[in-house]
Amino acid sequence: MYPSLKDKVVVITGSSTGLGRAMALRFAQEGAKIVINYYKNQEEGEAVVRAIKDSGSDAVAVQGNVMKEEDVQKLVQTAIDSFGKLDIMINNAGVENPVPSHELTLKDWDRVIGTNLTGAFLGSREALKYFVDNNIKGNIINMSSVHEVIPWPLFAHYAASKGGVKLLTETLALEYAPKGIRVNNIGPGAINTPINAEKFADPKQKADVESMIPMGYIGKPEEIAAVAVWLASEESSYVTGITLFADGGMTKYPSFQAGRG
């Protein structure tokens, strides 16, 4: 548990399901107040709010598209209106889809870059405006991926977006460190979320993925949530500008494991 997170106010984009939901529930356990963001499914967003309130903390759900300035501004304003402040911004919303690069449409490219990279920029910018204007030593966490460093055929748009998030995070961390504002990335590996459920339900595909993970298993959303609360807490007070990979060793060239190569 992290006492420094009690009564902190956290905005988490894309938090009605998957990693965002797991982070929201974990922050609630730490006593934080959460702004839940959903894109389309209001019922999922409200279900997370109910679970948080049942745990003894507080939350509100807000519809929003992270590619739209006004929607991201609404998320920050909701935090202020509902809970009086903003302490932590987590830019988690993300999308992916496999397409051979020579068939990748501009529409698909724009959707993935817009959600994953532009969304992280807009969320970071709006949080920074609030932190700077109010002299708050706030905290921004962006959701990157192992694919900020691992090329991924059929996912050129996704890998490009996460590479962009890496340097966005590092640049903002350097720029705002003198103000005590910390900016970091989380880089998940293969995690058992709804977006991956169909793939991991296939024993062969699951085994193929596990073979790329030195620790030999697919991660749980709760393991990413544990990373997020640490990065948001005072326990990581001297950490800024990093990508913390939570990937079971996937970024460590697993094909060379056991002396091969």
What's the CATH architecture?
3-Layer(aba) Sandwich
Query: What is the helix fraction of residues, given as a range?
Result: 40-55%
The overall number of domains is 1
Overall geometry: globular
Side by side, the strands of the main sheet go 3-2-1-4-5-6-7
Mean pLDDT: 97
DSSP strand tally: 7
Largest sheet: 7 strands, parallel
Name of the top-level CATH class: Alpha Beta
Task: State the distance separating the first and last CA atoms.
Answer: 42 Å
Structural category: alpha/beta
* Strand-residue proportion: 5-15%
Query: Which residue ranges are poorly predicted, with pLDDT under 50 across at least 5 consecutive positions?
Result: none
H/E series: EHEHEHEHEHEHHHE
Subunit structure: Homotetramer.
Organism: Terribacillus aidingensis
Family: Belongs to the short-chain dehydrogenases/reductases (SDR) family.
GO molecular function: glucose 1-dehydrogenase [NAD(P)+] activity
